[in-house]
Design goal:
Layout (H helix, E strand, L loop, with lengths): L7 H10 L4 H8 L3 H8 L6 H8 L10
Length: 64
């Protein structure tokens, strides 16, 4: 089974369509925002990151 790799733009679009932004996603995944940015922008990132972003739930911000 071959699943196509996400480009950096596709990766970003995947999490944004679920309501996430970089800062909230970095916090969820336990990453520093700069580290997440490096992952997102690396077209040769490890395949598990593509799997992870495809499996994200919808993000609903908590009301304060």
């Amino acid at each position: 089974m071959t699943i196509s790799r996400l480009t950096p733009a596709q990766f970003r679009a995947e999490y944004e369509q679920r309501g996430w932004i970089g800062i909230t996603l970095a916090k969820r995944w336990g990453k520093h925002p700069v580290s997440l940015s490096k992952i997102v922008n690396d077209p040769e990132r490890a395949p598990h990151w593509d799997d992870a972003v495809r499996g994200l739930p919808k993000y609903k911000a908590k009301k304060e």
